[in-house]
């Protein structure tokens, strides 16, 4: 068995260089979403004793299960849903797209580095290729196109989800809900609220998501040039003495 050798040539070309840029951007997109968490501490007094009620929300942002008792001191009288809804499907689709893209980039970079000759020469689908482990340029183009579409849809959906989360977790709205509906917070001096969150990570995840769409979509042109679909259109022109643009070759127009 021939020794496998690594070639970094393609990393110096737009195709490989964009893949390198995709790697940290994809990681940033799903990591900032999956790693997000926020907490609100409510300090209150019952018969002169200080107590703290804390609740958190985090990925996958299923806010429907977050509730508080009507009476924090007696813990009776039913409960109130703090938020009422969430952004589960949007966040999960966004993170799923990120994880799939992350795994694909690792796999395709391996192909670029160690199986570049097969990648450039074998244009068949993996099930038809002589080496199923080799990712052909045709497969790379199709998968990249699908991921680009996924990133666009996921980023748009997640942008809507982030707006929902920001609206539901507005500090003044949560505070008013406690003051109006929860004992002993109806006495405004009895409860003190300490928020522990901001939306910077969610904003970063959105920027990274749309950046991933841009990078994957941009790379399609460079992958397309490696496919048999593109090369087969260039071959007839070269054979007939024409350049890729359809003009006569320079040697044919020069005087003899």
Name the descriptors.
disordered C terminus; transmembrane helix; 256 residues; two-stranded antiparallel ribbon; 14% strand; membrane; 8 helices; alpha+beta; transmembrane
Would you write up a description of this structure?
The two termini are 53 Å apart. Helices cover 54% and strands 14% of the residues. The chain has helices spanning 14-34, 88-114, 116-121, 137-168, 171-181, 200-224, 228-239, 250-253; strands at 37-46, 49-58, 67-71, 76-81, 191-196. It is rod-shaped. The protein has 256 residues and is of the alpha+beta class. Helix 4 runs antiparallel to helix 6 (200-224). The chain has one domain. The longest helix has 32 residues, at 137-168. The strands form two sheets. Strands 2-1-5 form a three-stranded antiparallel beta sheet, covered by helices on one side. Strands 3-4 form a two-stranded antiparallel ribbon. Belongs to the synaptophysin/synaptobrevin family. Pfam families: MARVEL (PF01284).
Count of helices? 8
User: How many angstroms does the end-to-end distance come to?
Assistant: 53 Å
Radius of gyration (Å): 28 Å
Report on the biggest sheet.
3 strands, antiparallel
N-to-C SSE string, H for helix and E for strand:
HEEEEHHHHEHHH
Mean pLDDT: 83
Strand pairing plus helix content: what structural class?
alpha+beta
Q: Give the tally of β-strands.
A: 5
Shape: rod-shaped
Task: List segments where confidence is low: pLDDT < 50 over at least 5 consecutive residues.
Answer: 125-134, 242-247, 249-256
| Binned strand content | 5-15%
Helix coverage percent: 40-55%
Total discrete domains: 1
Strand order in the sheet with the most strands: 2-1-5
